[in-house]
């Protein structure tokens, strides 16, 4: 798409809400990654997001809401879902529910994914707006999600109507997605909350299925290549530093052309995507990712590295 829009860059969340009401496209930070959103009840605005991102038409968007009480107006909330909402929201969790509000965009599916972000700026915008905002991660389809304002501007200036400025995402990987439209419930995408943590609260939860050939994906987004930089990504435990390649990991040695040594899984999550983007900018051809620590966050980091490895 040509970058022909006159994009507003602002911290004014009421202006962002006004642009949404007028059918515009707004890019905003959340606690996970940046999102690119439109009024969920404005079909042409929602479809414009697909054009901008070059996103496959059958991959639905997450509906963002300003407070947990609104979820029951959009999707079917059972008692177990209600206690989950109470415990985890606002926060980095998306729930797929049976859809009850037909006016909300969801690519024609009978289900809808809902999420109440905890980021202060987006919460302000959602509360000024007052309704549901459909938003995927702000990145061109297949590329790593965006976690820094500079990347949001370089990729989307001229393509969206407004970029909302606020604190940068704290977490760095997309929200956990759980499907409660099926019984037993299924974890579709690990995030800040992984299977082990959630299983304690949802004992009958089923883990992420590895998608075999011919199998129908539970979540449309799972069948697409994701999160990948242009460079080739490898998961390694043993690679030694080289002068032409890049590496990221916990307490890794120096000696690479470009590397990032993080202290724990939360730093790993927070910087993985921006590291991928920096490697592409430097023209690096190969990226070696060392395994995350065996603690909270491990599953999400491995999931994103493995997805980035697929070609
Ligand atoms: O952290 C996040 O979730 C970010 C921020 C912006 O909120 N958003 C995000 O959106 O990561 P996206 O579109 O990149 O990922 C949403 C995932 C996709 O894999 C999509 O297929 C799945 O959620 N999804 C959305 N609606 C669904 C539905 N009704 N049924 C199954 N999966 C659904
Ligand atoms: Mg995405």
Automatic annotation (TrEMBL):
EC number: 2.7.7.87
Keywords: ATP-binding, Cytoplasm, Nucleotide-binding, Nucleotidyltransferase, Transferase, tRNA processing
Keyword hit for Nucleotidyltransferase: yes
Compartments reported by the entry: Cytoplasm
Binding site for L-threonine: 32, 64, 115, 135, 175
One GO BP annotation of this record: tRNA processing
Residues given in the record as ATP binding sites: 55, 59, 111, 137, 145, 189, 227
Record's GO cellular component terms: cytoplasm
Coarse class of the protein's main subcellular location: cytoplasm
Protein task: Required for the formation of a threonylcarbamoyl group on adenosine at position 37 (t(6)A37) in tRNAs that read codons beginning with adenine.
PANTHER family: SUA5, THREONYLCARBAMOYL-AMP SYNTHASE
Annotated NCBIfam families: L-threonylcarbamoyladenylate synthase (TIGR00057)
Family: Belongs to the SUA5 family.
Protein name stated in the entry: Threonylcarbamoyl-AMP synthase
Protein's organism: Leptospira sarikeiensis
């Amino acid at each position: 798409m040509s970058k022909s829009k006159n994009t507003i860059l602002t911290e004014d969340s009421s202006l962002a809400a006004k642009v949404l009401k007028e059918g515009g496209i707004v890019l905003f930070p959340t606690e996970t990654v940046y999102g690119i959103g439109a009024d969920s009840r404005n079909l042409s605005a929602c479809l414009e997001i697909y054009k901008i991102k070059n996103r496959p038409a059958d991959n639905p968007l997450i509906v963002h809401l300003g407070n947990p009480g609104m979820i029951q107006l959009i999707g079917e909330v059972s008692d177990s879902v209600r206690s989950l909402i109470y415990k985890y929201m606002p926060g980095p969790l998306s729930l797929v529910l049976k859809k009850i509000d037909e006016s909300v965009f969801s690519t024609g599916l009978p289900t809808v994914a809902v999420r109440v972000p905890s980021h202060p700026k987006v919460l302000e915008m959602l509360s000024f707006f007052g309704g549901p905002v459909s938003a995927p991660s702000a990145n061109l389809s297949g590329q790593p999600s965006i976690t820094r304002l500079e990347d949001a501007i370089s990729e989307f200036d001229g393509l969206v109507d407004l970029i909302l400025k606020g604190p940068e995402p704290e977490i760095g990987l997309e929200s956990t997605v759980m499907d409660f439209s099926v019984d037993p419930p299924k974890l579709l995408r690990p995030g800040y909350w992984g299977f082990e943590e959630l299983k304690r609260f949802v004992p009958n939860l089923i883990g992420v299925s590895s998608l075999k050939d011919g199998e129908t994906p539970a979540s449309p987004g799972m069948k697409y290549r994701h999160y990948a930089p242009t460079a080739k990504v490898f998961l390694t435990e043993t690679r030694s530093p080289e002068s032409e390649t890049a590496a990221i990991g916990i307490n890794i040695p120096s000696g690479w052309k470009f590397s990032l040594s993080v202290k724990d899984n939360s730093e790993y999550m927070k910087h993985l995507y921006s590291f991928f983007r920096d490697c592409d900018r430097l023209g690096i051809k190969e990226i070696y990712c060392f395994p995350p620590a065996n603690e909270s966050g491990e599953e999400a980091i491995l999931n994103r590295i493995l997805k980035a490895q697929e070609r």
